[in-house]
């Protein structure tokens, strides 16, 4: 689960990280009061969306030469004018996809006097099975370019979970970021704080880009992007309260209510599958035959009829799904339960697109019988290969 920048900064502030003062607002009416709470003489008006690249982003509704999603303001009037222009509009960045994201919240923040922009992040490094810091002196809005063309400028430093951030590791990070004086002292304090926050809150990613050295020589967290491990959210009510559903795909929210693993994708074949491995294989084979999956939906092991019904309804509600492939290997999951769930969903919402069903495993004969006797226009398939070819052909034909 992702949260907004201002929320991430509040979490880090609790742990003692140096962040600027700021006020989040939801409407332009609040802009003036928010700016007045800050000292000035520089304010920054920052779009709050669950995506980075905001500074270089463009608003769909504004002229091409209009300013981006992070704007400096030298007066309170400018803060208000920018807030009016930004709120309610759609920001397109390198990370949002072409549709962009509507800006419903702004963060009005104290402007910092920047001497240097650094990059610092924490992530779970699967290659060594540890949490690792990633650090570079080349922070700011072009870090992706640095990673691609000069990867030697980026240090990856794994942290042993039994040792934590030792003095030696903290010093290595200071060296990599070329910190001295006050900035070095700030860094030595900051790195263990970030590591503790990451571990205690079950973060999956904590990215500070930029971490800045200010003209007064001190460090400040200027941007913060945090995402959490969804499997650990049950033990963090405070973090769950930060969820912004307007940032999430509606179908994914619906799926999460039924504990279904659903991810919306860009293609046109909806897939209902049981087990993540079978879901991956199904997506691969659809691609092999020249089409793209519209989603990844795993109904899981011993799903009930209700869960299967909900899953099928989510797939049929996707206007991009021009065909549906049900591919089930019944182990714990029973094929007859799948068949009943599909029928119940079709009774409620109808079926406008071709449906290919491949069932195998426990109670397969009963499952096939239920579908055959239903009068539904189902294309039966015998194996994975057959099923994929049939749905790809059916969708092409319908086009
Ligand atoms: P994004 O990464 O989404 O573009 P950032 O928060 O990193 O958004 O902001 C982009 C740039 O705007 C930063 O690299 C920095 O140069 C500038 N900036 C952001 N916040 C402030 C601030 N509080 N004071 C001064 N400059 C800022
Ligand atoms: Mg940034």
Describe this structure in a few short sentences.
Keywords: ATP-binding, Ligase, Magnesium, Metal-binding, Nucleotide-binding, Tricarboxylic acid cycle. The chain has 399 residues and is α+β, with helices and mostly antiparallel strands. Helices cover 35% and strands 25% of the residues.
List keywords for this structure.
399 residues, alpha+beta, Rossmann fold, 6-stranded antiparallel sheet, binds adenosine-5'-diphosphate, binds magnesium ion
Blueprint (SSEs and pairs):
Elements: H1 5-14, E1 22-25, H2 31-36, E2 43-47, E3 58-59, E4 70-73, H3 76-86, E5 90-92, E6 101-102, E7 106-110, E8 114-125, E9 130-136, H4 143-149, E10 154-159, H5 167-176, H6 181-200, E11 203-214, E12 219-221, E13 225-228, H7 237-240, H8 250-257, E14 261-264, E15 269-273, H9 276-288, E16 295-298, H10 305-316, E17 323-330, H11 335-349, E18 355-361, H12 364-372, E19 378-380, H13 384-398
Parallel strand pairs: 15-17, 17-18, 18-19
Antiparallel strand pairs: 1-7, 2-4, 2-7, 3-5, 5-6, 8-9, 8-11, 9-10, 11-12, 11-13, 14-16
Helix pairs in contact: 5-6, 10-11, 11-12
Bound molecules: adenosine-5'-diphosphate and magnesium ion.
Residues 52, 209, 223 line the site of magnesium ion.
Domain ATP-grasp: 9-237
Organism: Pseudovibrio exalbescens
Binding site for ATP: 46, 53-55, 109, 112, 117
């Amino acid at each position: 689960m992702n949260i907004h920048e201002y929320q991430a900064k509040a979490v880090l502030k609790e742990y003692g990280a140096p962040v600027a003062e700021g006020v989040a607002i939801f409407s332009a009416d609040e802009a003036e009061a928010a700016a007045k709470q800050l000292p000035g003489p520089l304010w920054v008006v920052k779009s709050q969306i669950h995506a980075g690249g905001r500074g270089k982003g463009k608003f769909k509704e504004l002229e091409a030469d209009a300013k981006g999603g992070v704007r400096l303001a030298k007066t309170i009037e400018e803060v208000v004018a920018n807030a009016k222009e930004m709120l309610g509009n759609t920001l397109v960045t390198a990370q949002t996809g072409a549709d962009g994201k509507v800006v419903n919240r702004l963060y009005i923040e104290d402007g910092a006097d920047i001497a240097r922009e650094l990059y610092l992040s924490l992530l779970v490094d699967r290659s060594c099975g540890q949490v690792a810091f990633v650090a570079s002196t080349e922070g700011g809005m072009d870090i992706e370019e640095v990673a691609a063309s000069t990867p030697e400028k980026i240090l990856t430093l794994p942290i042993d979970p039994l040792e934590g951030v030792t003095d030696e590791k903290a010093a290595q990070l200071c060296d990599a970021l070329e910190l001295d004086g006050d900035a070095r002292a700030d860094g030595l304090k900051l790195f263990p704080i970030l590591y503790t926050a990451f571990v205690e809150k079950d973060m999956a990613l904590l990215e500070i880009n930029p971490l800045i050295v200010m003209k007064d020589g001190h460090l400040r967290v200027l941007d913060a992007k945090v995402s959490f491990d969804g499997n650990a959210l049950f033990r963090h009510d405070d973090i769950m309260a930060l969820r912004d559903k307007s940032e999430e795909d509606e179908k994914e929210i619906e799926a999460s209510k039924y504990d279904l693993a659903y991810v919306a994708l860009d293609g046109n074949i909806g897939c209902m599958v049981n087990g993540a491995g079978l879901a991956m294989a199904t997506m691969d084979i659809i691609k092999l035959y020249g089409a793209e999956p519209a989603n990844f939906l795993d109904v899981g092991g011993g799903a009930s009829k209700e869960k299967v019904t909900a899953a099928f309804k989510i797939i049929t509600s996707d206007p991009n799904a021009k065909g549906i492939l049900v591919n089930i290997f019944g182990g714990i999951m029973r094929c007859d339960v799948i068949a009943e769930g599909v029928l119940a969903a079709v009774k409620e919402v109808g079926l406008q697109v071709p449906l290919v069903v491949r069932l195998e495993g426990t109670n397969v004969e009963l499952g096939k019988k239920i579908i055959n006797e239903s009068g539904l226009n189902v294309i039966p398939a015998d194996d994975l290969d057959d099923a994929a070819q049939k749905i790809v052909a059916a969708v092409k034909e319908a086009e």
